[in-house]
Amino acid sequence: MPHGCVGGHSRSGRRLRARGCIASLSSASHGDRILTNTFESPSESRAQRVIVLNPKGGSGKTTLAINLAAYFAARGENTLLIDRDPQGSATRWLRKRKVPQPAINGIATFERDSRTTLSWQMRVPDGTTKIVVDSPAAVEARAMPELVRDANKVIVPVLPSDIDIHAASRCIADLLLVAKIKRAENRIGVVANRVRKNTLMFQALMRFLEKLDIPVIATIRDSQNYVRAAEQGVGIHEMKAYTVKEDLAQWETLLAWLEPERALAEQPAPLQEQPAPQAVASTPEVVIEPSTDETAAHEAQFVVADWG
User: Fold this and answer.
1) Counting beta carbons within 10 angstroms of the beta carbon of residue 122, is it exposed (0 to 12), middle (13 to 18) or buried (19 or more)?
2) Which residue, 93, 85, 64, 67, is CA-closest to 6?
3) At what angle do helices 61-74 and 245-258 cross, to 10 degrees?
4) What secondary structure letter does DSSP report for 5?
5) Which residue from 50, 96, 167, 171 has the fewest beta carbons nearer than 10 Å?
């Protein structure tokens, strides 16, 4: 059985239990086995949920989602990849995974079965610690609150083009205004995707990102390594390190943003030096005035006014 178990149902209805998920034989000619309704998990609320979101198609959402899922799985996390995109690219990638690649559970929300409800299909496997969601294109603003309600982190990929910059500005405005995510929560991060540095469009993209006041968590180059990884059903963190050295380095800031505690724990301890004796001086009292948070509406208006 492939290590990627994907949401769906078989015509035959035959089921078997494998690696902590309920699987069934697919009716496809190549005989994939796919995940059906997974059982409810009491640990779902403790799992970190990361959503990759941009209503504009072609921004590289799926590439980020599958490589993030592969990274978590390679690290030993019990990972679930939810494919909400009707194109099913993440699901096809998941079905390509083979032993000895780490297992990744999958749910394809676009593969519906009239015998079950969507909430039943979306039940998370027991013991899941990481959930990565590949969102669909053309998400309407009114649908965003429900989509990102339980998200710990929302990653917005943006390409270096005028059309993509405008689409990203609208997406972030909707996340701030409609979905009511505050900047202070540090839940939204932007990834400059498929960039070629030292180009005019890259410079325009970076100027746009600076004005957003949203953290740019990674700048990812346009690399064929992602194409090769997708064809093999792997992530770049599962490829030979010497072939993807530059790509792996660009992921470090993204991973540190997702898991700041882990990144801090992995840093080497600083060398301790004996401080020189100093005279004790009185410290004047400093009064810090409490700051007021900007409203989400004001934040969104700032983005649209400058880049709409």
Assistant:
1) middle
2) 93
3) 80
4) E
5) 96
Q: In the structure encoding, which two tokens stand for residue 233, read together? A: 């059903």
Amino acid found at 290:
P
160 in a structural domain? yes
Beta-bridge mates of residue 157: 191
The two tokens of residue 66 are: 């599958």
Q: Give the global pTM.
A: 0.75
Q: What 3-state class would DSSP assign to 276? A: coil
Kindly report the CATH number assigned to the domain that includes residue 107.
Answer: 3.40.50.300
Residue 95 structural domain: 4-266+296-307
| Cα(175)–Cα(145) distance, integer angstroms | 8
Say which amino acid occupies 259: E
Look-up: residue for tokens 């995940």?
35
How are strands ordered across the β-sheet holding 33-35? 15-18, 21-25, 33-35
Residue 76 lies in a domain: yes
Does 286 map to a domain?
no
Tell me: the pLDDT tens digits for 165-200?
889 889 999 999 999 999 899 999 999 999 888 788
Of 85, 88, 96, 61, nearest to 230 by C-alpha is: 96
